[in-house]
Structure formats: structure tokens, C-alpha cells
Amino acid sequence: MRREKRKITGSIVLTTIIICLLVTIIVVTFYNLVYENHISVQSNVNGIRAYYISESAIDVLYNDINKVCEKAIEKYFEELFNYKIYYINLEGGVDYCPPDFQNILKTNILLNISSFNRTVNNPFSSYVHDHSYKITVDYVVSYNIIKADIIGRYLHARKPITVEFDLPTEIFDGVDEFGLPKLKIKPLKLIKIYQNLTI
């Protein structure tokens, strides 16, 4: 009878240990699944925040480029106005050669291109963790565009975006009362935006 009690007691202890091990394995597995899911969700949230940071940097860059373009447009129309007065006072005999808008714009862009490149750390006070954006700009003179690579970063998440801006151009808009060409300016325009897969 003692042997049977020992066998029963031993099998109960063994069964209890096995059940405890199984419960422990199930609890640890469940914990790991929940933890990995939490990490995955947090990574996605950080990626979305990094993307919004990149999008905000596009707005900053657009405003900076637009300010430079507006100065070039003001200078161009001032020079054009002065040239038209000069040309009208000549009363003929000279070819009409107004100022070239593209040269004025190109000069202004080239003088300011380095100010467009920047890295800004922690631009948003509502984001608690470390974040930043980096803008790298290239002026493609032959196509009259500015191409920019922007990287938004939030913690370890990075979202690179490439954008292209079509710079202002002059458009013929008929003739004025003196028979001289009237011009209008097509404004700065964001023409391409796409997210890069790797950085």
C-alpha cells in the first residue's frame, strides 16, 4: 500500500509539474505575442509620425522657395516696367529686348539654394520623443525644377520623401496698349511627390 501511495504521490507531483510547465509556456507565449504586437503597432505609429514630419518639411521648403521666387518676380516686373518706359521713350529704331525672367529667377535661386538645405531637430513641441527632418535640395536648371530629398525621423523610424517643384515661368498674355507683349507669371507648383522605400 505504501508503494501505491508513493506511486500516486509521485504521479501527482509529476502531473502538477507538467501542468505548471504548460501553463508557464502558454503565459510566456501569450506575453511574447502581446509584446511583439505592441512593438509592431508602436513602430507603425512612429513611422506615421516620421511621415508627417516629412510632409511638414515639404511645406517649409515650399514657403522658402516661394519667397525667393516672389522676390525674383518683383524684381523682374520692376525691370520690365522700367525697360518698357525706356523703350517707349525711344520712339522706335531699336529692337525690343526686355529683361529675361529666367535669368533673374536663376540668379535668385542660385544665390539662395544653400539656405534651402537644412536639418532641423525637434521642430514640434507636441512630439515628446526625439525627431527631426533633413532637406537636401538640387536645382535642375535645364528643366527649371527644384528636386528635394526629405527625410523625416521619429525615434528610430525614418520616412524619406522626394519632391519636385516646377519653378515659375513667364507666359505670353497678349499685347498692351503700346503693342508690346503682356506677360504673366505661372506660379511655383509642386509637381511630384513620392515616398522612397529605402534610405
Automatic annotation (TrEMBL):
Bilayer-crossing regions: 12-34
Keywords for the protein's UniProt record, in alphabetical order: Membrane, Transmembrane, Transmembrane helix
Protein name as annotated: Type 4 fimbrial biogenesis protein PilX N-terminal domain-containing protein
Organism expressing this protein natively: Serpentinicella alkaliphila
